[in-house]
Amino acid sequence: MSIITLTTDFGTGSPYVAAMKGVILSIAPDVTLVDLTHDVPAQDVRHAAMVLDSVCPRFPKDTIHVVVVDPGVGTERAIVYARMDGRHYIAPDNGALSRLAEHYPPEKLIRLANPAFWLPEVSNTFHGRDIMAPAAAHLAGGTPPERLGPPHAELVAVPRLRGYRGDRRIEGAVEQIDSYGNLITNITADMLEGRPTDERACIICGIYETYGVFRTYAEQPPGTLVAIIGSTGQLELAVVGDNAAMRLGIERGTIVVVAWD
Amino acid sequence: MSIITLTTDFGTGSPYVAAMKGVILSIAPDVTLVDLTHDVPAQDVRHAAMVLDSVCPRFPKDTIHVVVVDPGVGTERAIVYARMDGRHYIAPDNGALSRLAEHYPPEKLIRLANPAFWLPEVSNTFHGRDIMAPAAAHLAGGTPPERLGPPHAELVAVPRLRGYRGDRRIEGAVEQIDSYGNLITNITADMLEGRPTDERACIICGIYETYGVFRTYAEQPPGTLVAIIGSTGQLELAVVGDNAAMRLGIERGTIVVVAWD
Amino acid sequence: MSIITLTTDFGTGSPYVAAMKGVILSIAPDVTLVDLTHDVPAQDVRHAAMVLDSVCPRFPKDTIHVVVVDPGVGTERAIVYARMDGRHYIAPDNGALSRLAEHYPPEKLIRLANPAFWLPEVSNTFHGRDIMAPAAAHLAGGTPPERLGPPHAELVAVPRLRGYRGDRRIEGAVEQIDSYGNLITNITADMLEGRPTDERACIICGIYETYGVFRTYAEQPPGTLVAIIGSTGQLELAVVGDNAAMRLGIERGTIVVVAWD
């Protein structure tokens, strides 16, 4: 039984999501559907790229991941099939797959150009329902990806803003804010390797600072700003028992520095 | 394996939804459950009717669609089973099915009056859990609809506000606002047939106007107000790359006019 | 085919939920996953306890309920397996299961201490993904709970605030506000037994009062404050056709009194 996941910016509860599910189940009634998330900020391809990179590899091999964050719908941008690390991806070629592709170079790339695997009527504004959903369902039913269209040369890359690793400092930024208000940065555990992480490390986020990188939120008293290595291997700032983003007024893009003297 | 979809106004994340799923899986453990949407505005039967009409026909024949938007729960309003276009519907008879019924005249109508297919204890306020969920699960398990109760004469109709098609103008209104803030009107592609849709057509929405009906959002520069025929075959107004409802302060019910001179 | 439900405070649409689903499906690809709710207020164990108590018993016996509301993640709090009333629960031992345990004394308690059933790498901040999800998936695959770890003596209890039943009055409080804005109290139908519930009963909620306990919302005209026994057997206050919490400015914890003279 195949698994198909859906990632969109339609908003949870959008009937557009349900329409895609109806199309998929009409072609492949036995698939297991999983909502990866529908709360990608509207048309935010970079955010989608980050979420896909952190979550998709948790799914079994052969999972079919469908991504509909598609600001260019109806233009000449390609819709592609990619196989990476034994999993299948269907998405507009707009950079949404670029972070995954950095870690898992594509084993196969196809351009979805064969209308035999689309709905008979294709709208100009909802290719998720009319092209991507049926293509995913046909894959789940055993159609080889080669039948979906010709080879596609290369994925569009959206460069990731990486942290900078200097001599006495590492510079980065808040890349994502989770539903607890924790501030997830683009500074990774690797970048900290070989550096002290005890109270000699000063972590600065906007106008706030804290010392040392801790193991868990709960090691410090409520209300304290703490830095930890989060569950995705990235440096994360949190206020114990509170919402750091709201409490401190921090937004995505805020500069984060780790410094030693 | 049967598919049961759920449409409610409980709000995504409501434990009431989960209670219905528990009841269904207790009777029919092998069904595939799909959330159609739980974000129908509270008690907004007309909105439910619109969503059901656009999404339910995308599902396979024999899907069982359960609808719990039920301002009259506990009163004498009937709960009905309807078969339309080979799909099954269970809903309070309050108009929620009326737009579907316009397109797909009911092939069978039953009043859910046989408590043998309800939970043993029926509350006064949650017939979704106590009557509709178990009835749907019994249908999924093979119970013929006739056993759920006696025939039901006719569905309550909630008249749809249709656009008006005059000589040099078509008048309608914003019927729905999607999660991108696009303004979906009750003016359909059919109503525009035979009329020019190039720059001779002036589309007026509240105090704003734009010229021509385009194929896609992306044909115009960001920030532009554009009119297109959307993925449900309805005239739709959008601001490219932005949220039209918020940007322009437009609400459901705003008058939309297409005029030629 | 096993059923696994997920209850978290991650927020609907959180990719953290999807990561747990990926882990579960990688180990047990045939399970049926059900979202119980992901909208427990952040770290609100008491709220989780209430939701679990009202919804979990609706699911079939042998359902595996996984609960990740875990303010103490990374500290010494135990993660436990509990069997209650023939259903399986995996949760941090922080009181989230305490209301269920009042009604269904645990038949078996295990402390999840055997890393053989965890992910190979365990983060300090996301035991839902790294310990609870894989343990649940292994249970679904037939692993006996005894293999997950040693017996656990007793569940942490978080005492429930109960209503007080006096001679001419019952005192309680608003315990939960549902998505319609209805005010659900900790005064139960049992507590009202033997007392008049007609207009002799005066129900006071904050600065508002109403007389009599009704069967359904719809018995009174729109805009009226009514008291009913809700679908969970608790006294509930609602404004007909409106959102009582917003209309009256009532919050959780507001005192509710039923009085007779």
Largest sheet of chain A: 9 strands, mixed
Distance between the amino and carboxyl termini of chain A: 56 Å
Weakly predicted, low-confidence segments of chain A: none
Average of the residue pLDDT scores of chain A: 93
Integer-rounded radius of gyration of chain A: 21 Å
Task: State the order of secondary-structure elements of chain A, H for helix, E for strand.
Answer: EHEHEEEHEHEEEHEEEEEHE
Percent of sequence in beta strands of chain A: 25-35%
The amount of helix of chain A comes to 10-25%
* Largest interface in this structure: A-C, 35 and 31 residues
Number of helices in the DSSP assignment of chain A: 6
What kind of assembly state do the chains in view correspond to? homotrimer
Structural class of chain A: alpha+beta
Number of strands of chain A: 15
Overall spatial form of chain A: elongated
